[in-house]
Design goal:
Elements: H1 27-34, H2 36-53, H3 56-82, H4 90-100, H5 102-116, H6 121-140, H7 152-183, H8 188-202, H9 208-230, H10 236-264, H11 271-275, H12 289-314, H13 319-344
Helix pairs in contact: 1-3, 1-6, 2-3, 3-4, 5-10, 5-12, 7-8, 7-9, 7-13, 9-10, 10-12, 12-13
Length: 351
């Protein structure tokens, strides 16, 4: 197959350049990713200290540490935008997408290491730091990537399949699932009663395998699409769509695996399974789930918003209208996320 430089049809700015003006915009988010296990551990210790001593300094320290952890997708996203028109930055983009999904990637690694390999947090931290150190060295000394032109027919089929599958999951599971989680902001009993009703549908013998299969299709079609767009110049909306898609894919793997593993051991995967016996601010390592859940909900809505914008533009909608719709959906997603996040941190209206 001939090697060529490909310009994405979505890109409306300047033509691709050989290299980004900033040679290593990935370096700062990479440094924080390497330190991520320590950030979570230090945050949990600070919260525990704040509970025990009512120390104002401990509380401020906890907030500062979590803000640093929350900065990773922002910094990784910024680096992706810097390299959005550099068609030779494929390897940097590949690692930046993983950095963007750090919180869910770490939760997935935690599930695999603790539930299946029996490793402790210290061993997980050592493996995490070593893996990212090697990845950083590999990226630092990388050579120019080669861009290959894929088959348009295959890509069209992947996009259509991905979109139809996403629509089925939205209508059949995800929207109701998010609304049910938001109900916990009123009270956990309300959330639990609705959850039991929804489980009649999505845990039935005929529906649950279909939903799991649809999630599998989403992942199988999403991966080649990410690889394709990573090798092309992209506009900002496409960059955000791909990055949030990677995050959702990692989150689905982590969440489904943890849930099925718990159910296999007879555990009840209810609200307390997700939020802990008290809240995620109990001073334990459950703190790793704070960015994991927050970004999952918000990035899912942003991903849908970007996909909807593309569909609208393909059907003749003016670009300005499509952008407004995308921002509107993303804004609604932020509201949904804030409500859900408040409940995870222990806020309930009835209480």
């Amino acid at each position: 197959m001939d090697t060529v430089r490909v310009v994405n049809e979505d890109y409306l700015g300047n033509p691709p350049v050989a290299r980004s003006k900033r040679r290593r915009p990935w370096l700062l988010p990479w440094m924080i990713v390497v330190l991520y296990p320590g950030l979570i551990s230090a945050f949990a210790s600070a919260v525990k200290s704040a509970h025990q001593s009512r120390s104002f300094f401990a509380g401020i320290s906890a907030v500062a540490l979590m803000l640093v952890a929350f900065s990773i997708p922002v910094l990784a996203g910024r680096a992706l935008l810097i390299t959005h028109n550099d068609v030779q930055a494929f390897r940097a983009r590949a690692l930046l997408y993983l950095m963007f999904a750090t919180s869910s990637l770490f939760s997935l690694a935690h599930t695999l290491s603790t539930r299946f390999a029996g490793l402790g947090y210290g061993a997980l931290s050592a493996l995490w730091i070593s893996a990212w150190a090697i990845a950083g060295a590999w990226l630092y000394f990388r050579k120019t990537s080669i861009v290959r032109k894929p088959s348009n027919a295959v890509l069209k089929g992947l996009r259509v399949t991905h979109g139809i599958t996403a629509l089925c999951l939205l209508c059949g599971f995800i929207i109701a699932h998010l609304i049910n989680h938001d109900l916990a902001a009123w009270s956990i009993p309300l959330h639990t009663s609705v959850l039991k009703g929804l489980r009649v549908w999505y845990r039935s013998e005929s529906v649950e395998p279909v939903l799991l299969g649809l999630f599998g299709v989403m992942l199988l079609t999403g991966v080649p699409l990410v690889i394709h767009y990573s090798r092309r110049a992209m506009d900002a909306f496409r960059v955000i769509q791909v990055a949030t898609g990677v995050y959702i894919g990692v989150f689905v793997c982590s969440h489904v695996l943890a849930t099925l593993a718990a159910r296999a051991k007879g555990a009840e995967t209810d609200w307390f399974f997700a939020a802990g016996p008290a809240t995620l601010l109990d001073g334990s390592l459950l703190a790793r789930l704070i960015p994991h859940y927050f970004f999952a909900s918000f990035f899912f809505c942003v991903h849908v918003a970007c996909g909807l914008r593309i569909v609208l533009l393909q059907h003749g909608t003016p670009n300005q209208v499509g952008n407004r719709v995308a921002f509107g959906v993303a804004g609604a997603g932020l509201v949904v996320t804030v409500v859900l996040f408040s409940a995870l941190l222990g806020f309930h209206v009835e209480r």
